[in-house]
Amino acid sequence: MKMINIIDKKRNGTELNDDEIQFFVDGVVNDTIPDYQISALLMAIYFQGMTKSERSSLTMKMMQSGEHLDLTSIPGIKVDKHSTGGVGDKVSLPLAAMVAATGIPVPMISGRGLGHTGGTLDKLEAIPGYQVEISEQAFLKQVSQEGLAIIGATKNIAPADKRIYSLRDVTDTVDSIPLIASSIMSKKIASGTDALVIDVKTGSGAFMKTLDKSIELAQALVEIGKSVGMKCIAVISDMNQPLGNKIGNALEIEESIDLLKGQGPADLKELVLTLGSYMVVLGEKANNFDEAKELLKDTITSGKALERFRALIKAQKGDTRVIEDYTVMPQAKYRIPLIAQKSGVISEIEADEVGIASMMLGGGRQKTDDQLDYAVGIELHKKIGDTIHEGEPILTIYSDQKNVDEVKQLLTNNIKISDHAEKPQMIYQIIK
């Protein structure tokens, strides 16, 4: 079998069989296929797509390229959540604590941010001492004892995906539905979870810019999950503006803790309760969505969710004082307001550009080895549909540099004030 024949076959729109996909994945892992041939096949897949059978086969071959985490020693139905990524998306942090407080084990394997999207692990590392890398044995013990753990993936989970993903990033094939679906699901299946709720973002700050494409991706993810016996639901949520009010690693930890204290922005709360309710139903702690939602609300009012988050931080060696004192985390030297030049209603906040602005401050990565400044970021005081008066601050820039003119200009160019605007909906569709 030759790689060039596989490239030719897919380039011409013909379905690849299991043996050809296995040959490709083996060559990726064993380093016997050069980057230029892998890239050629990725581009062919980007343009020609893949059938359901091909997507399922690619996912399973990638999953089988490494280790499979065995969670059977943890009692109960293990439920995880995955997001396709967005700006201000700190959902995993309060969500894991709330769901765990209902008695459902939450073994969460998360990633880092790249470009305009933030990573859960980066946010957690803003907490002094927090360890995202722990042994498999410690991970299993922690989920059994504390009900949750949030760690980074080991090198042995779906190793084929790591090389393929790095090439997708530099060959502009990131937003390919078959490649996104196989990347996400190979890692989630390998992580051994019983049930999965997927947050598929749609809009300007998402990989999928249109609702139709987001639905297509959600359907592909759910189909793959169900094909291997995993309980799976996808929620399509808005990413036309940042989620919540705070963007930046330490700032998003603050907002997550605020939510667990019964505060926090309404859009973040709505999404957390929606995703969490489906997790609770899949975990069989409630019979329906409404019952699950009430259970989750109770974890906040009773303080149980906040205590679960405290237990998570303590178990992974973080400084638990952060729960009461946010200044335990790195603090920016300057707080610089962006002032509205006219009165009206906020009609547009381009999520991806706000994410890029935060990255320019040092809060995100352009390359995987970039060092983060955990203190910096942006706090929105107004969202789409909110009234603003001339001279009021639209947002505050948290920076360690006094001169942020370039960041201010980028934000000014991507926030629009009009005479009228409707608040966008948060949840568009549920895919089961």
Percent range for β-strand residues: 15-25%
Using the 3D structure, state the CATH architecture of the largest domain.
3-Layer(aba) Sandwich
Helix content: 40-55%
The overall pLDDT average reads 94
State the end-to-end CA separation.
38 Å
* Rg result: 21 Å
| SSE series | HHHHEHEHHEHHEHEEHHHHEEHEEEHEE
Shape: globular
Instruction: State the CATH superfamily name of the largest domain.
Output: Nucleoside phosphorylase/phosphoribosyltransferase catalytic domain
Enter the CATH topology name of the largest domain.
Pyrimidine Nucleoside Phosphorylase, Chain A, domain 2
Topology:
Layout: H1 3-11, H2 18-30, H3 35-48, H4 52-63, E1 79-83, H5 92-100, E2 106-110, H6 120-124, H7 136-146, E3 148-152, H8 159-170, H9 177-190, E4 195-202, H10 211-227, E5 231-238, E6 246-247, H11 249-260, H12 266-282, H13 289-301, H14 304-315, E7 334-339, E8 344-349, H15 351-363, E9 377-380, E10 387-388, E11 393-399, H16 405-413, E12 415-418, E13 427-431
Parallel strand pairs: 1-4, 2-3, 4-5
Antiparallel strand pairs: 5-13, 6-9, 7-11, 8-10, 8-12, 9-11
Helix pairs in contact: 1-3, 2-4, 2-8, 4-9, 4-10, 5-11, 5-12, 5-14, 9-10, 12-13, 15-16
GO molecular function: 1,4-alpha-oligoglucan phosphorylase activity; thymidine phosphorylase activity
Pfam families: Glycos_trans_3N (PF02885), Glycos_transf_3 (PF00591), PYNP_C (PF07831)
Function: Catalyzes phosphorolysis of the pyrimidine nucleosides uridine, thymidine and 2'-deoxyuridine with the formation of the corresponding pyrimidine base and ribose-1-phosphate.
